[in-house]
Design a protein that fits this description.
The chain is built from 7 helices and 14 strands. It has 260 residues and is α/β, with parallel strands linked by helices.
Length: 260
């Protein structure tokens, strides 16, 4: 939901940490280790937009849209009007099949229309996704459908499957610049393999929300921090959060964690 010049994240405690939410029209990073809750946070952000009548797009680069639907079912959110773009690359297959770049004619599917079966990989054609082709497709979709919120899940998959290593820095910079110029509020999910390693996307984004996951004798504990937020003040403390039946809940009323 809109709050003054900012838009809500769909997580009240997160909005509090961001002093009102996101400045709209900018790209942000959601980073953290596997299983920290990055996709859940991002879908919560899209759900907030849907509830406010906004057009929202989820770009699936890591898992098939059907899996997203199944994984989000536990939260009982109304995501029927969420557009999901299947940009999973079949380049991961090892068979020597002809490769076609993803087309600008590709259309997202409404969440309500997604079946539960995982899509079949084409028998004779593989679909390759490059950053350039995805950027062109997004440009077409943004012009045609006027999305206000977009999630890219994930930049890690995009880099791993869709970029040549020597082009990585320039290509990432170009993609982030494109998202900034498109004036869409976007969350780019980023897998962090090691704590403390700062990825190049973090420097290029307007802000970074980092999720932390620690394990001790009592089980898994999760924390969230705002690593940076250009153009806005923000809470610099690290707060615990839980993944509940209604999604992520940030506990800003508890004493902040000293460090993670």
């Amino acid at each position: 939901m809109m709050s003054g010049t900012k838009i809500g994240t769909g997580i009240p405690g997160m909005d509090k940490m961001l002093h009102g939410g996101f400045v709209p029209g900018r790209p942000y990073i959601v980073s953290g280790p596997p299983g920290a809750g990055k996709t859940i946070l991002s879908v919560q952000f899209l759900r907030d937009g849907l509830e406010g009548g906004e057009r929202c797009l989820f770009v699936a680069l890591e898992e098939p849209p059907n899996e997203l639907k199944i994984n989000m079912r536990a939260f009982r959110w109304n995501l029927d009007d969420l557009d999901v773009l299947d940009a999973n690359s079949d380049i991961r297959r090892f068979e020597p099949t002809p490769i076609l770049e993803i087309s600008t004619e590709e259309e997202p599917t409404k969440m309500r229309a997604l079946g539960e079966r995982i899509r079949k990989t084409p028998d004779f054609e593989s679909k390759e996704v490059t950053v350039h082709s995805l950027q062109q497709l997004l440009k077409t979709l943004l012009q045609k459908k006027g999305y206000q919120r977009v999630v890219i899940d994930s930049m890690t998959a995009l880099k791993y499957f869709c970029m040549r290593e020597f082009e990585e820095a320039v290509t990432t910079q170009s993609f982030m610049r494109y998202l900034s110029e498109s004036k869409v509020t976007s969350l780019l999910i980023l897998e962090l393999p090691e704590e403390g390693e700062v990825p190049p996307e973090a420097f290029l984004a307007r802000g970074e929300i980092r999720l932390h996951k620690l394990r001790d004798e009592t089980g898994i504990k999760r924390f969230v921090s705002v690593e940076k937020y250009k153009g806005s003040s923000h809470d610099e403390a690290v707060y615990p959060f839980d993944i509940t039946n209604s999604g992520i809940v940030v506990n800003t009323n508890t004493k902040p964690a000293m460090a993670v």
